[in-house]
Amino acid sequence: MERREIVEGAVALLDQHGESGVTMRALAGRLQISAPSLYWHYPSKRDLLEDVADALVADVALGRGDPAVRIDPAQRLLVLLGDFRRALLGHRDGGRVFAGTFTLGPHVLDLSEAGTSLLVEAGAACAGEALDTWFNLVRFVVGSVIEEQGAAGQPELAGRRAVFREANAHRPTILAATERVFAPDEDRRFEDGVRRLIQPPEVRRPARPRTTFSPST
What we know:
Blueprint: H1 3-17, H2 24-31, H3 35-41, H4 45-56, H5 73-89, H6 94-99, H7 106-122, H8 127-152, H9 161-167, H10 172-176, H11 178-182, H12 186-197
């Protein structure tokens, strides 16, 4: 059996039972192979989930870093991040699986290359600055997905609007934003957050100069 087939079986288990349901025993049973055969390919669940995380973002990066796409690099980056988010949302616990791994799979590396190169094209001073920004963007995407998927499992949240209003009767700013809590536009919220992170360097607030102290003479 090929590793690709094992990963496909693991993704199917993920979609059916969530991250906790992806066990080596359950996967071996699903694939109708012996546990030793599975462990020969993947010594641990962590090793397996690294390839699962890579599979979740397969093809997300295709064409996004191509300069022939005649739109602003920041806009192309926004599209790339939106596709990344949707890829994770497309699988049960996709955010949790991706957050819990440090995969060097080809799809994740292609995604990182596409995002980092777009940041350089958009005005990052160097590859190092672009990579730092990319890591922050990935964390934002993954965190957003985890929150969205977590909230989706709490249908009772909508019934707590009155409790929320009462609890925040003396907090006028939060109270005024009640609908943003109970009827959020997740797409708008995500896009707004990403735009703030990828704004051109020249419009960012300059860092405060460091204060240096010299010993008195």
